[in-house]
Amino acid sequence: MSDNTNPSRSLLNGPDPVLLPVGHADTRARLALANGTAVRDAVRLEPSSSYLWALLAEEALTLPYGASDPVAAYAYARTGYHRGLDALRGAGWRGQGPIPVDHEPNQGFLRALLALSQAAAAIGETPEAKRCAGFLVDSGTTSEAVEALRVR
Known about the structure:
mainly alpha, 7 helices, 57% helix
């Protein structure tokens, strides 16, 4: 069976990369943050933003003085992960294929996925941590590439 919907796509190369639209909730969330809105307030404005849930998860994982909260991080990250899956499916993703990390609207989902892997590891949910880390690789990126986004 051939794929006539995209003549430049080779079935041997797998599915096309998925690119969340520029007007996605994560883009609006970034704008709210740039305008001085606190993350927790921005979540109320854009609850479907994976980016915001990822930020909350990252914060919960990295609180200083041993105050990190991996259980809260897991809950935040899982919310961002599921919101991201919904957005990816809405953009045509069918459960496999590249999710480019260099496309800014995709970064919230990938950050939530990394935070979910890290939080799962922190609470002893090793199979989930490994599955999420593998999902990053299957998406065409690495934990290191996604981790590097945190310094931006």
